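INTERNAL AUDIT FORM
Audit reference: QA-55
Scope: verify that the stored structure record matches its stored sequence.
Auditor: D.O.
Record contents follow.
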Amino acid sequence: MRKSSVKNIRINEEIYRELAEIIRSEVKDPRIPPMCSVVAVECTPDLKTCKAYMSVLGGEDELDKAMEGLKSSAGFIRRELARRLNLRNTPELHFLPDRSIAYGVDMIHKIDELHISDEGSEDEA
């Protein structure tokens, strides 16, 4: 695995910023909820492909609908990125769901359950 260069980091940040703006203001697909956000962007060094990790406020079914909407509007989003950014190659976009927030909430609930069960066992002793 190659170390990320400063140039690649700057391009990732720029794509992240523009992608969030395009999804928020330009995309009119009803499957994409207003609380859809870009979590992270990873672009390959040759700028051929780009992975965009997306998070949606809501359940798993809303996340699936949002992913379908984003995949269907990927061409429009790519064209808008090309228009806004001055890059030699505009990367092909791959939208991936980011479940890290849901995972974190699940871990917090498990820790709370352990904490409650520990307090119950201390009261019995």
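Auditor finding: record pair retrieved intact. DSSP finds four helices and three strands in the chain.
Action required: none
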